[in-house]
Amino acid sequence: MLKATLRSFLAHKGRLLLSALAVLLSVAFVTGSLIFSDTVSRTFDRLFASTAADVTVSPKEDLDEAVPSGRTATLPAALAARLRQVDGVAAARADVKVNGLTVVDEKNEPVGPTTGAPTLGNAWAPNERSPVKLTSGHAPRGPAQALLDSETAGRKNVHIGDTLTVIAPPGSFRVRVVGIVTFTTTNPGSALLYFDTPTAQTKLLGRPGAATGISVDAAEGVSDDQLKRHVAGALGAHTYDLRTADEQAESDVEQLGGFLDVIKYVMLGFAGIAVLVGVFLIVNTFSMLIAQRTRELGLLRALGADRRQVRNSVLTEALLLGLVGSTLGLAAGIGLAAGLIELMGLLGMNIDADEMEIGWVTPVAAYVVGLGVTFVAAYLPARRAAGVSPMAALSDAEVAGVGRPLRVRAVAGGIAGAAGAAALAGCAVSGQTSSAASLLGLGVVLTLIATVIAGPLLVRPVIRVLGGAFPALFGTIGRMSQRNALRNPRRTGATAAALMVGIALVGGMSVASESMTASFDRQIDKTLGADFVIQNSNFQPFPPEVTDKVRGTDGVGLVVRGRFTPVAVRLPDGDRVETTAAGYGPRLDEVANITYTQGDSAAALAGGNLAMDRDFARDHGVRVGGTLPVEFPGGRSAELTVGALTDQDSAEGFGTQGGLFFGLGTLERYAPGGQDSALYVNAAGGTGDDDLRAHLEETLDPYPQVQVRDLADYKQLVHDQIAVLLYLVYALLGLAIIIAVLGVVNTLALSVVERTREIGLLRAIGLARRQLRRMIRLESVVIAVFGAVLGLVLGLVWGVCMQQVLALQGMTALAIPWVTIVLVVVGSAVVGVVAALLPALRASRMNVLAAIAHE
Questions:
Q1: What pTM value is reported for the model?
Q2: Distance of alpha carbon 519 from alpha carbon 36, whole angstroms
Q3: 275-39-262-372 Cα dihedral, nearest 10 degrees
Q4: What gap in Å lies between CA 695 and CA 642, rounded to an integer?
């Protein structure tokens, strides 16, 4: 049996090639994501471990800053001198590190990275743990000198002697580049500028004698933990955050972890789609191969092979296929990871491909995925093969399931479909976001399973409709192609299922994203009343001089400032909620249309008051007039009075949990040191919008990071952000379509082999080669469109239910992207034509007499 199995596998290797490609793609995405994330993680582990001080002293921050406030936490730089006297301390340095600078050259062109990585300003204090070394020029001396990293200098063509403008939180200033520093470790993609310590303190922090942290080195023989205890004893354990080198490196890795997780989960999403669609392809391939080998299997049974041997023979072929696909997929995954590393290099993150990290988990995962997919997919066809009777050797019988009743599928599909529909209905009527999302996930899984199981039941009624015009348009050829698609509903359903999965995904996400876009558009129209909004392009705050210059611009009538701060609120029901609150200047009603259910803007912005969303207030037992303990950054706290309740939790500017906001006076009293994040500007009387925009853009020309946006621009900004998610979905669809095309090609190719005698007879009675190719193409088109129709129906149902979940977060508009739906249907027909090209060509080149004589 082993010899027969190996002979059969080698005899059908051409037919199995496309199935192996599906396994290869699945494994490649799994292994590529693991290798890439492991390599980046290990690279940054080394970076953080080599640059972290033995003990780092930082300002204590109890609140996470989800939205940038522009506030930089500091501590006294004099602590360094105090710590040098502590037992076990060899050295202590005051650090100044400020994130979010904007740097422009003499042509007012940005010098920093454009890929989202930050531009960092630092005090120049070189030591053996510095990530850079001075390679040309000299150290900065005085407020007009700076160093720039070599990669940024090379990318932006900056040289020693050039003048740069630095836009920092306290304001902008000009410096001359007097030296170039080169990274000694991995460059995470940032641009680095170095100033002497007094300049960094005054120009970056705005506070002479301040620092953002203290780096402490241990004396010989003193461990990091011992040093941390000594420092804590000198400073007080609860005054500052103290971290050993390992703890600091771990903290840095955690901050980077979000970025790495996004990449890993995106790639694992691709792997999941490849696995799911590949299962359909492999099931179909093995089902057809077994159908074509019915007489061969019957002969083996007649010669004495039992059911177990036949089943194991088919499963062995599947495992051989999985072994080949996994090995090739592992190699492809290494190449994919290398390509991602190169891509990161183009984006400014230089990772050495020679240090690629391939842990033991990666090859294990590769073979578990590859062998598991093929084994699971081939199990049902193998069981069917084991049921072949020895008498089949004497007939032309097939076990492909033609004519077999579909009652079991109908029952199983009906049960799964009913459960899925109930879950989706529960999602639509649920009033809690968490439960609605859970029911949505369950409903999506169950309805997908139900559609896959019951798909063959839908083949005949749907394809009769989809192919109903074929006889009229293409005559006998059209009728034959339609009947070929109807001949084996199981095969047609399985072939179409691969395409259905991808299209259902893109259909559902398209509805959700279109609904999100429409909801935001409606909310922006409803809420935003300003002529223009001034904001940083990456939503970072901007220095006060921007606000001053906007106020002094010709044609400006009203400017209302907005800024953000992290807060923690103790609520009457005992909950402590950390969120982001907004602070707004007076006359807010003239630039924003806020719907109040209780109170008004005057009460909301009054000193010592705050406003919040009414639903949030109701859920936590908050009433107007009540007081709430509110914690601010830096350990400050206050008892604020609830002055107003609003009905727009998801409105522009109020989209954080609770919709908390208060007056700028309250914010500046309890969270000083922040910066404006937005300016809402109205034109003065007699000034047109176009004129005001031109004046504002001229004023803000020295600040390339700051954008002038009107209502349409603001909507486009939201559209672009949502489009990023949609592009990912389209990429997933593209992968699903690639594998689905392989499945259609495989099905048609095997179908051509299966119908060799039939094709030969058709050719003998006068069917032309061109007609034969058209017949196969039409069959492919109708199968592809069938899959697209099922996918779109399923996707639309999912999308509507997703919108119901979004409605619980205030995004109540439902929008159907009809253009996308039409394009998907047309595209599926094109997919069908492309998938049929090779099988149709092969069929048309058959020798007529050899085809008629084919067994």
A1: 0.76
A2: 37
A3: 20
A4: 40
- For 703-736, give one letter per residue: b (16+ CB within 10 A) or e: bebbbbbbbeebbebbeeebeeebeebbebbebb
Q: Token pair of 1, please?
A: 């049996």
Asked if 106 and 179 touch (Cβ cutoff 8 Å), the reply is no
pLDDT for res 13: 67
H or E stretch at 165: strand 163-168
Query: What is the distance between the alpha carbons of residues 792 and 225, in angstroms, rounded to a whole number?
Result: 60
* CA distance linking residue 487 with residue 291, whole number of Å: 14
What is residue 586's DSSP assignment?
Answer: S
Distance from C-alpha of 169 to C-alpha of 707, rounded to nearest angstrom: 17
Question: 343: exposed, middle or buried (C-beta count within 10 Å: 0-12, 13-18, 19+)?
Answer: exposed
* Residue-by-residue DSSP string for 656-710: SGGG-EEEHHHHHHHSTT----EEEEEEPTT--HHHHHHHHHHHTTT-TTEEEE-
Q: What is the DSSP string of 455-523?
A: HHHHHHHHHHHHTTTHHHHHTHHHHHHHHHHHH-HHHHHHHHHHHHHHHHHHHHHHHHHHHHHHHHHHH
Say whether pLDDT at 807 is over 70: yes
77 close to 95: Cβ distance less than 8 angstroms: no
Distances (CA, A) of 742 to 323, 489, 619, 631: 19, 19, 52, 58
The tens digit of pLDDT for each residue in 334-387 reads 988 888 888 777 766 667 667 778 888 889 988 988 888 888 877 877 777 777
Residues 6 or more apart whose Cβ sits within 8 Å of residue 714: 524, 528, 533, 652
What is the rounded CA–CA span in Å between residue 376 and residue 560?
62
Give the integer Cα–Cα distance in Å for 322 and 375.
8
Average pLDDT, the chain: 83
Question: Which string of DSSP letters, residue by residue, matches 741-806?
Answer: HHHHHHHHHHHHHHTHHHHHHHHHTT--HHHHHHHHHHHHHHHHHHHHHHHHHHHHHHHHHHHHHH
The pLDDT score that the predictor gives to residue 403 is: 44
The DSSP element (H or E) to which 299 belongs, if any, is helix 294-302
Residues counted in the chain:
855
Assess contact for 259 and 80: CB atoms under 8 A: no
Query: What is the pLDDT at residue 189?
Result: 74
Q: What's the rounded mean pLDDT across residues 21-35?
A: 82
H or E segment and range at residue 342: helix 307-346
> How far apart, in Å, do the first and last CA atoms of the chain sit?
23
Higher pLDDT, 426 or 7: 426
pLDDT-based confidence at residue 306 (cuts at 50, 70, 90): confident
Kindly state the DSSP code that residue 200 receives in the 8-state scheme. Answer: I
Picking from 71, 96, 122, 102, the residue whose alpha carbon sits closest to that of residue 208 is: 96
pLDDT at 397 over 60: no
